[in-house]
Design goal:
- The complex is a heterodimer of chains A (314) and B (271).
- Chain A is mostly helical and 314 residues long.
- Chain A folds into two domains: 56 residues; 246 residues, MetI-like fold, CATH 1.10.3720.10.
- Chain A contains 14 helices and two strands; from the N terminus they run H-H-H-H-E-E-H-H-H-H-H-H-H-H-H-H.
- Chain A has a two-stranded antiparallel sheet.
- In chain A, helix 8 runs antiparallel to helix 11.
- The N terminus of chain A is likely disordered.
- Chain B has ten helices and ten strands.
- The termini of chain B are close together.
- Chain B has 271 residues and is an alpha/beta fold.
- In chain B, helix 3 crosses helix 4.
- In chain B, strand 1 and strand 2 form a beta hairpin.
- In chain B, the strands form two sheets. A six-stranded mixed β-sheet of chain B has the order 6-7-8-3-9-10, sandwiched between helices. Chain B has a four-stranded antiparallel β-sheet with strand order 2-1-4-5, with helices on one face.
- The chains are: A mainly alpha (314), B alpha/beta (271).
- At the A-B interface, helix 9 and helix 10 of A face helix 2, helix 3 and helix 6 of B.
- Bound molecules: adenosine-5'-triphosphate and magnesium ion.
- The site of adenosine-5'-triphosphate has 12 residues of chain B, from strand 2 and helix 1.
Chain lengths: 314, 271
């Protein structure tokens, strides 16, 4: 056995260089085709999801014309005849996402900058894993926390009839997207080459100026990605908003009103929708819109980054 | 002794106005002593070259003058470094003010990932110049001083990273000049450049030395001989601490070194 091994070793050593090169290229081809296959699979699955959403959701437009669907303010799926206007859900999602983003982005970037640029190595090494652990916190539990702790607080601070509101949901979502924003932004900031900081300090910039004018701009693509992930989480999160947003069906005029974001509408409606029925189709159409929404967010981010890159990189 | 180096005409007299003086300086990285008992004067409006083998503390020494060593944890400095008679290691020294006065060019060109204009305007902006017209003037003046204006005047808005290595290094020099420093530190500024780009930077240094005090670290003996007025030769002792072996007019250090070790080092490479 050992002898054999040695033989093959000797053989390998005797193989001329170009033969080795050929083998190496073969291995590379193999890996390449695997990656190709994996990529293809992802695309196929994605296409499958889109097709499913379209197939199940689009038929609603035979019953309710698109403008009535999008701009209608009344969602009465069980009245006779039923009406399907998703404006309340759409505006609710908008409010909740705006609140969540407005809170989580500045705080997230500030925390990331603190961790990467200011905190001593020891602190960073302990805090970062804890934050990353929080990213996996079950959303039902977050919902409970919102219900028990945050909503009474929001109610008394803003003198509201109920603490269950878009604001409450937005704040909870901000907490939930913070870990990912902090973690990814921090990685991006740490990837900024030290030469830039050195150059900045040597020009007489302060620490704060170096962070704000050098590190954050240099890490902008990573930070944008972080923000997109955070916003994506906020748009797509279901359980927490279902529990704390209040679930009202009117178009919310202010974030302090109770409301029902699109995800919550799907989750609460799908249980008693008849398969293939109008409500079922309408809910799938909402899913389709959610999908398009997140896709649009990502595409816009991509576009912004691309322009940024073209401007400042070789 | 006969070193095969061409020594060009130097200034008639080296300005004996002392700009920076280092007295009994010891520097430690934690327990490791990197510089020992350094005492040395750096004259005004001249080029002082620091030469010596790798690891002898040249970069560390250079970073003393703008206190960049402060950024490294565990660094301890003993002794005095005086700039215009003021000890820059005094407790009440404003490091930001100091770094405005003492600019630094690094070994690897390190322009910011911004436009050429923004790179040069970075320092002035940080120091309160916000007026666009004023900034444009500063940028143009600095780029001209750094002999880069003609090559980039029509693409100030483009990324600095798209420039060649030599252009990037001149941009970094322009960026330093824009802050209007009095002393310029250069740590092997040409080591990433080709010979032609190197000569351009050397010409530029010569030009700048009329108005600026320049301290340069270099591994290139010809460069030290060619471009500097004063030379300081560093060596390592047994415990790897850097010491000053010899310093004086470049011509003297290169043609008539007083210390055997200097002679060995210079001739060992080029004799
Ligand atoms: N950040 C640091 N922490 C600990 N020790 C360091 C640090 N920087 C440098 N040293 C040590 O200090 C000594 C001098 O280093 P320095 O970089 O000043 O040498 P140098 O003369 O510039 O070398 P080179 O010519 O290779 O650039 C070396 O022994 C080095 O290992
Ligand atoms: Mg060095």
């Amino acid at each position: 056995m050992k002898q054999k091994q040695r033989d093959s070793d000797a053989q390998a050593a005797a193989v001329p260089a170009n033969e080795l090169g050929r083998r190496w290229r073969l291995g590379e081809k193999f890996i390449e085709s695997w990656i190709y296959l994996a990529g293809l699979l992802t695309i196929v699955v994605l296409l499958g999801i889109i097709i499913l959403l379209i197939k199940e959701g689009l038929p609603i437009f035979f019953d309710t014309p698109p403008w009535e669907f999008f701009f209608g303010t009344k969602w009465y799926p069980v009245s006779e005849p039923p009406t399907f206007g998703i404006m309340p859900f759409f505006v609710a999602t908008l409010w909740v996402t705006i609140v969540a983003t407005a809170i989580s982005v500045p705080i997230g970037i500030a925390c990331a900058a603190c961790l990467s640029e200011v905190a001593p190595e020891k602190v960073r090494e302990t805090v970062k894993p804890v934050i990353e652990l929080l990213a996996g916190f079950p959303s039902v539990v977050m919902g409970f926390i919102g219900l028990m702790l945050l909503s009474p607080l929001v109610q008394s601070v803003f003198h509201l009839p109920t603490g269950l509101s878009g604001l409450t949901a937005g704040i909870m979502l901000a907490f939930m997207s913070l870990p990912i924003i902090i973690s990814v932004s921090e990685d991006a900031l740490r990837a900024v080459p030290d030469e830039f900081r050195q150059a900045s300090y040597a020009l007489g910039a302060t620490k704060w100026e170096t962070i704000w004018h050098v590190c954050i701009p240099a890490a902008l693509s990573g930070i944008t990605a972080a923000v997109m992930l955070g916003v994506g989480r906020a748009i797509g999160e279901t359980m927490t908003v279902l529990m704390v947003a209040g679930g009202a069906l009117a178009v919310p005029v202010s974030p302090t009103e109770p409301m029902m974001p699109m995800t919550a509408a799907i989750a609460s409606g799908i249980g008693n929708a008849v398969r293939g029925g109008l409500q079922y189709q309408a809910l799938f159409a909402i899913g389709l819109i959610l999908f398009i929404l997140t896709l649009a967010v990502n595409l816009i981010a991509d576009r912004v980054l691309e322009r940024q890159k073209r401007k400042f990189q070789r | 002794m006969n070193v095969n180096l061409e020594i060009p005409e130097k200034k008639e007299t080296i300005n004996d106005e002392v700009r920076i003086s280092v007295r009994d300086l010891n520097l430690y990285y934690g327990d490791f002593q990197a510089l020992r008992n350094m005492t040395l004067d750096i004259p005004e409006n001249a080029i002082t070259a620091i030469i010596g083998p790798s690891g002898c503390g040249k970069s560390t020494f250079l970073r003393l003058f703008n206190r960049m060593n402060d950024l490294i944890t565990g660094v301890r400095v003993e002794g005095i470094v005086e700039l215009d008679g003021v000890n820059i290691y005094d407790r009440d020294i404003d490091v930001v003010e100091l770094r405005k006065k003492v600019g630094m060019v690094f070994q690897k060109p390190n322009p910011f990932p911004m436009s050429i204009f923004e790179n040069v305007a970075f320092g002035p902006k940080r120091h309160g110049r916000k007026n666009r017209v004023e900034l444009e003037d500063i940028v143009e003046k600095s780029l001209k001083q750094a002999a880069l204006w003609d090559e980039v005047s029509d693409k100030l808005g483009q990324s600095a990273l798209a420039l060649s290595g030599g252009q990037q290094q001149r941009l970094c020099i322009a960026r330093v000049l824009a802050v209007e420093p009095e002393v310029i530190l250069m740590d092997e500024p040409c080591s990433a450049l080709d010979p032609i780009a190197t000569l351009r930077i050397e010409d530029l240094m010569r030009e700048l030395s009329k108005n600026y005090t320049i301290v340069i670290v270099t591994h290139n003996m010809q460069q030290a001989a060619r471009a500097s007025d004063m030379s300081a030769f560093f060596m390592m002792e047994e415990d790897r601490a850097g010491v000053l072996v010899e310093w004086g007019a470049t011509e003297k250090v290169f043609t008539n070194p007083q210390d055997k070790r200097t002679e060995d080092y210079i001739t060992g490479r080029f004799g």
